[in-house]
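user: Kindly work through both lines:
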Amino acid sequence: MKRRNIEIGILFVVLLTCLVVVLRYSKQAPALSSQPHSEERKEAEHTEKFRGQLTVATDGQFSPGFTLYPVVGNAKVLLLSSSGETVHSWNIDADRARLLPNCHLLVVHGTKWGASISPWSDLKFAVREYDWEGKIVWEYRSQERIHHDIQRLDNDHTLFPVRTILSKPKHELIEDKRRRRLPSIRSDYILEIGPSGNTVWKWDAEERLDINSCGKPDCSQENPSDWTHINTVSPLPENRWFDAGDSRFRPGNLLVVLRNWWTTLIIDKLSGEVVWRYEGDYKGGLSGGHDATMIEKGLPGAGNILIFDNGRVLHKGESYILEISPPTKELVWVYDVGKKFFSNSSGSVQRFANGNTLISEDLSGRVFEVTPNKEIVWEYDSNFRIARAHRYSGGYCPHLPVDN
């Protein structure tokens, strides 16, 4: 009897020990399973968290169309209807995406999120064109990182900025000016390539700008290892200034934003020279800057230049949209609502035929359309960072119905 009691006691201890182990494992299991075991798991978790919604839509006052909405953090480029519904999507991580007239998507990869997630981390040196179904139909690869912007020109050439490193002699000069040792200093060049990948035109900031200058700010006010940080390359459309004889605004010349110079330039495409420069003086002037564009003929303000002024250092916490008459640099219109609008980096701006302006407040994930009187008449918001939303009218390409 005594021996049996001992056996029962031993069995009880064994069972109790097993129970403790099971309970301990069950407590740990959820924590372990919530950890990303692969890059695919990370992507899936981000995708599940996305929530986007239409928050304002004032009938008859907004400009109808389809808004391209690249989401940073879940490898999605969404196409939204005027009612905020997703009518199409591509499973692509895009730092800049443009819809082409054939409904293909032209993309620069390498967002802040995608730069560390495969396969997007391997595409930082590539630009791609995808068809409506997401199939790759064209690709160009570089030895250096392609970033921020891309344009498909009327002649089927493709234009984009490329990150590079300053050469050694000039590198030493800029080190002396900043009085600090840096292993390397980034610069940029702009590349135009043909459909076969051949280089048609190149503009190198190191060869064309004063290497001892940092533009408007002191060199210590921006990242000292990131000299120019070109984020926008926008060809000038036909415009009244050139029609009146001002060759600075020749169609095809390039409107370029050097974010870390707090400066917008126009580069003469034929000579490569900088023929126009804007630093601004509104509340201290440009501080950062993104997505400068000249308003096309037929739109209100045609020929004027729109600039997204981030407010990175000056007027910190407040971003502005500036509309400028380029010959005089006079301000024609400003969207300034104080702390209600701010994106420390990134962002875009677009003018519509009804005179309204679309603003992409990228860091918050908010895209909104405002009237000339600054009334918000359309707004879509999410909990994700985005990459320069842009709206296309119905009928722009075969898959977009005229009525939306």
